[in-house]
Amino acid sequence: xxxxKYAASxxxxxxxxxxxxxxxxxxxxxxxxxxxxxxxxLDEARQEMIDSHVSQTELIQAExxxxxxxxxxxxxxxxxxxxxxxxxxxxxxxxxxxxxEMSQIEExxxxxxxxxxxxx
Length: 120
Known about the structure:
Layout: H1 3-31, H2 35-64, H3 73-119
Helix pairs in contact: 1-2, 1-3, 2-3
């Protein structure tokens, strides 16, 4: 594999790794009820995945244009990072939604508790 294709593989690793990290930080922010920051981090993760996908697409196009991409451990590692980051982002979105919904339910319960104390 030539240097350009190695660079594309390492670019995928770097950007997908950053995307996964941001997705995991987004979940942590949601857990701490910082939903605005969680959504910002999730948006950043999605943008990094778009950037990572550009590098992946370059390799796919090279293969489609008759320039075979040699399979090696770096490329396998890059694809693994890409797949894991995609999954992390998907799950992060669901976790953020769940934490937000849970927070809203807790607020409603607390409001009812306050109302009951006032009435009693």
